[in-house]
Amino acid sequence: MDPSSEGFRRNQEVQLEALAALDEQLEIVRAGGGPRYIKRHQDRGRLPVRERVELLLDRDSPFLELSALAAWGTEFTVGASVMTGVGVVSGVECILIAHDPTVRGGAMNPYSLRKTLRALEIARTNRLPVINLVESGGADLPTQSELFVPGGRIFHELTRLSAMGVPTVALVFGNSTAGGAYIPGMCDYAVLVDGQARVFLGGPPLVKMATGEDADEGSLGGASMHSRISGLSDYFARDELDCIRIGRQIVSDFNWHKLGPSPTLPADPPLYDPEELLGIASSDFRVPLDPHEVLARIVDGSRFHEYKELYGTSLVTGWASIHGFPVGFLANARGVIFSEEAKKATEFILLANQTNTPLIFLQNTTGYMVGEAYEQGGIIKDGAKMINAVTNSSVPHITINIGASFGAGNYGMSGRAFDPRFIFAWVNAKLAVMGAQQLAGVLSIVARQSAERSQRTVDLEADELRRRNIEDQIERESNAFFITSRLYDDGVIDPRDTRTVLGMTLSAVHSQVVEGRQEFGVFRM
């Protein structure tokens, strides 16, 4: 790798430009509903959501925010009115789900729902306690048709976590009404703030319409009533700071311990500068990058023991460690996955399951190879072996898209549909069924062949216009911001943060048992 080369400088420029765009969007997320609504919230004596989270977390501990750009490019505010992430509270790694009441009163829209459900899924699969910081006006009613049926999954996940012995906590700072009232009702622990918490199935107007009864908010759902009469509240908090203090004490009383092994290897930093990842990350997915250069800047001591180095060289596999956790890596080298790479990956995944070793997938693939020779050589069967192994592997998978993730290569490299414990993308990554030019070209060929069969004249000008429009569409829809906004990953990250993100996620997955599987499905020979 030559930092003085033109290619390195070009890559660096493109990455820095993309990171500037990411920082701009993250500023919008951090701004919540904007200065006006934040001031109104503070004038009521209430803390902004990010201050609540900061006070709840252990001092100077890391926090990995998830799905920060949810709803980007839609009619809803970027961030989707809820903040989720993995953080340390009283020494315990937890999933935090925090409503932002400055964004439409914290109302839940379809993207808020997806974001919340993904956070709960991460909690369940990794055995992480959940802390809800509640202040929400309930569902965004104009989009209720997209919320009502799938929204019940929140209740399902909370009660399932409780049955698994994974604690759930509700810290109620404000409104928690209608369906939202079941959040504190279904959590193992509920803390309500005096004078602020309002937990009821129906507020005064609804009660009046339904029963003719006149009732005030306090008697219907105030913290005092629920603490003294209904028993819904387990702890009565004098104010927000008291609520956070009680929440931290609750977590401290869990007597929580991890089921996975602790780090066992030296956690020394890489020998090579992670800053150089900006020049290594390709500015054009059609130009391959050498995953060895990436690994040298993220693994402990830059130590990597490669498996089958001379066979199936379009896929790099091998053993390393991240912050002391032993891991196996599968990293695409030249985009295309051939039969040799598929068989190599299958064997490597089986070995990782034998040794209970987590797997990290670094995606940069255009998919499985096509063509007469490859079809006759059994590429479908070999790809199916690899996908079988990925599907049935039970060791934790963590996936990062470092360039491109196209076609069935996305599946074979543990894409979102294959339930990786965590999945992230570098800021300039692409994801689609295929590249924009390839997809537009395929549709153009199909259209021309159809015209020829029907003995129609091909309108070359219309064909070219359609081709350009399709290319533009796929470019937009394969953009990292577009993909993360739909919750197809857990966030867009700066390449330089890759080692840190991997370290935090590996620590989180070791809260659960780390155990491989010996039984797999039928491998097509």
What would you note in describing this structure?
The protein is of the alpha/beta class. Helix content is 42%, strand content 19%. The protein contains 20 helices and 17 strands. The strands form 2 sheets. Strands 9, 10, 11, 12, 13, 14, 15, 16 and 17 form a 9-stranded mixed β-sheet that branches. Strand 3, helix 4 and strand 4 (130-136) form a beta-alpha-beta unit. Helix 4 runs parallel beside helix 5.
* Total helical elements: 20
**Euclidean distance between termini CA atoms:** 40 Å
Structural class: alpha/beta
Shape: globular
The Cα radius of gyration reads 25 Å
- Helix content class: 40-55%
Q: What is the total tally of β strands? A: 17
Strand content: 15-25%
For the residues shown, what is the average pLDDT? 93
Residue stretches low in confidence (pLDDT < 50, at least 5 long) are none
Major sheet summary line: 9 strands, mixed
Key attributes of the depicted protein:
525 residues; alpha/beta; 9-stranded mixed beta sheet; 8-stranded mixed beta sheet; 20 helices; 42% helix
Question: Brief description of this entry?
Answer:
The protein has 525 residues and is α/β, with parallel strands linked by helices.
Write the layout of secondary structure elements.
Blueprint: H1 6-30, H2 35-43, H3 49-56, E1 63-66, E2 82-89, E3 92-99, H4 110-126, E4 130-136, H5 144-163, E5 168-177, H6 182-186, E6 189-193, E7 198-200, H7 204-211, H8 217-221, H9 223-230, E8 235-237, H10 240-252, H11 277-280, H12 291-295, E9 305-307, E10 315-322, E11 325-332, E12 335-337, H13 339-354, E13 359-368, H14 372-376, H15 379-392, E14 397-406, H16 407-412, E15 422-426, E16 430-432, H17 436-453, H18 460-477, H19 480-485, E17 492-493, H20 498-509
Parallel strand pairs: 3-4, 4-5, 5-6, 5-7, 6-8, 11-13, 12-13, 13-14, 14-15, 14-16, 15-17
Antiparallel strand pairs: 1-2, 2-3, 9-10, 10-11
